[in-house]
Design brief:
8 helices; 30 strands; Oxygen tolerance; alpha+beta
């Protein structure tokens, strides 16, 4: 027998348990009751929307008197509730649409409501009513609203830099909380004429809170560029243009009280900007200045200072620091003529950040001494302009002496007094060309000539033998190309085999299998009946197949396959059914081929 008392007790326990869960879900968050305005400032011919929103259900709602406004609509009530990961989310709102009755500054006073036995009040807010506007907000189109709430801005770190001083441009897309952006694509990217430029990659688009013209906005950084001006004077930076898809809220609401949105596409531009580039001062400019701008260190080093003749050493000229490291030439050392110098190997370790280029560049020279002695490498100087101080600075390296311990002595002068202005004479030992073979011992051989040989005449006559074959293949190609109907049939047959093969590969995947099977059947009919796809209806297909004297059984099977392809979109089909339909399609096509 059924124990109704036990069932009743169990039901009571479950009711209490669920009620406690609901109470726990509600108690997890504090009670909030607030007033939200659609805008803080409006024209006399516009309307204002006021929402009183709470996160708990309450009683005895008391609205303010709305002094200075007339209630056009309201109160309308909406409720939303949801459970996410065991946490309940609840929202209830009372909405009013107001029309101002006069110009001036007004205060919408507090509203009150009783929640859980306690009275809660909203904060009062100020509203300014101005003269009538040309186009009221309630008459504005989606494009008008998008124009007011979407802005692309180019923020430039410095508008009056020195020549070759780094500046940064950051492109930000500002979006008002009142609209939503669903997609964007660039229309026109700046070319940055008269600038050396490098993009700083934006790894991820992340929205941040900010302000635009004193109003709260959300913005994303779309593009970052570092520029080095290569010309003084006023230089123009072309604008960046984007096409943005915007969702704009409307006055309509759906069944659940949620606001509905209208979608529009807008083109926004960062606007053309002008940079006033200052020329580098000519006063006190060093004679060896070669265009370096920034803050640098300079060093000349060698891998060794003592070695033997015919051995090698490396001398490195290096500039490190911050500035236009890729845009100037390194100074070249002046070496004694007794030191053989090879072309330098350039090394660059520069990274570009929002602050500009940082790192180092260097030239490494391989030096091989020829004679024994001591050879000084004169001090080398490097000059640059520091835009922070507005002054030039010259750095000078120390003198380096190369001591060649063992090797031949120079015949022309004392090796200790060598300078780079005198070339060393080359001392001949008399056996420099012993590697040349003066008696090659050449022998004569009998020569055979290709001209007038049998191979010569064979190659000469072979093109004549190919002419008949070329004529035959050309006629055959022309006849195939002229058969337009036959070519169409071959192409459709090929497509039918292709789609039937694709259907076999999709066995087990219902939607893909039946899409491929339906395409194969249609393309087969197109090949055999010579009709276009737009004519494919089941009645038309049945009529044409009967006219072609296809038996009723085959026609019915073919139509049944097409019906299965359509039904598969809405009904579950097993793998066994798919295999059966595939086998049936192969069988029907084979039978129809024989009958046609």
């Amino acid at each position: 027998m059924v124990d109704f008392k036990s069932i009743a007790k169990l039901g009571l326990v479950l009711t209490v348990f669920l009620s406690s869960i609901l109470m726990m879900g509600q108690d997890n968050s504090a009670v909030t009751f607030e007033m939200k305005l659609s805008k803080p400032k409006l024209g006399l011919n516009e309307r204002l929307r006021v929402d009183f929103i709470m996160n708990r259900d309450g009683d005895n709602f008391s609205p303010p008197d709305f002094n200075g406004f007339k209630v056009v609509m309201g109160p309308s009530q909406s409720i939303s509730s949801s459970w996410i990961n065991g946490v309940r989310s609840y929202s209830k709102s009372y909405s009013y649409t107001l029309s101002p009755t006069a110009r001036g500054k007004f205060t919408i006073k507090q509203a009150s409501i009783v929640i859980g036995g306690e009275t809660y009040k909203s904060l009062a807010q100020n509203v300014e009513v101005t003269a009538a506007v040309d186009k009221p907000s309630d008459q504005m189109t989606a494009d008008d609203i998008a124009d007011e709430n979407l802005h692309l801005v180019a923020e430039i770190s410095k508008t009056n830099p020195y020549l070759n001083e780094a500046i940064t441009i950051i492109y930000k897309l500002y979006v008002s909380p009142d609209i939503r952006v669903s997609n964007y694509q660039p229309l026109d990217n700046p070319t940055y004429n008269n600038f050396w430029s490098q993009d700083i990659k934006v790894n991820m688009l992340s929205a941040q809170n900010g302000t635009y013209k004193g109003k709260p906005y959300r913005y994303v950084i779309l593009k970052r560029v570092v520029l080095y001006p290569q010309k003084s004077g006023k230089l123009n930076i072309e604008p960046l243009s984007l096409e943005v898809t915007v969702d704009v809220p409307t006055a309509r609401r759906d069944f659940f009280g949620q606001r509905m949105y209208a979608q529009t596409n807008k083109t926004v531009s960062a606007g053309s900007r002008t940079i006033n580039v200052k020329a580098l001062p000519l006063d006190n400019q060093p004679a060896d200045f070669n265009g370096a701008v920034g803050d640098f260190d300079f060093a000349v080093t060698t891998s060794k200072t003592s070695l033997n003749a015919s051995e090698s050493l490396q001398a490195t000229v290096e500039v490190s620091g911050k500035g236009n490291l890729k845009l100037f030439k390194l100074p070249e050392p002046e070496l004694p003529s007794a030191l053989e110098v090879y072309e330098p190997e350039f090394t660059e370790g520069v990274r570009t950040t929002l602050a500009g280029m940082q790192g180092k560049v260097s030239n490494q020279y391989t030096i091989v001494p020829t004679f024994r002695g001591k050879y000084p490498i004169s001090p080398l100087s490097f000059s640059y302009f520091n835009p922070s101080t507005g002054k030039y600075k010259t750095l000078t390296s120390d003198e380096i002496v190369i001591n060649v311990l063992e090797g031949p002595l120079s015949a022309s002068s004392n090796s200790d007094a060598n300078t780079n202005s005198n070339k060393q004479s080359v001392i001949s030992s008399g056996n420099e060309f012993n590697f040349l073979k003066l008696t090659p011992n050449l022998t004569s051989k009998s020569a055979s000539y290709f001209f007038n040989s049998s191979s010569f005449y064979a190659w000469l006559l072979s093109p004549l033998l190919l002419i008949p074959l070329a004529i035959f293949f050309r006629k055959r190609r022309d006849s195939i190309a002229g058969d337009i109907v036959g070519n169409k049939i071959k192409k459709a047959n090929k497509l039918a085999r292709k789609y039937l093969s694709a259907a076999r590969k999709q066995l087990g995947n219902k939607e893909s299998f039946y899409v491929a099977l339906e395409r194969a059947l249609h393309n087969y009919l197109k090949a055999k009946l010579k009709i276009e796809t737009s004519e494919f209806s089941k009645d038309k297909i049945t009529e044409l197949l009967i006219e072609k004297q296809i038996d009723d059984t085959t026609v019915n099977s073919f139509i049944a396959l097409l019906k299965n392809c359509e039904a598969a979109r809405y009904s579950p089909f097993s793998n066994v059914q798919m295999q059966a339909d595939y086998d049936k399609a192969s069988e029907v096509i084979s039978i129809m081929d024989k009958q046609l």
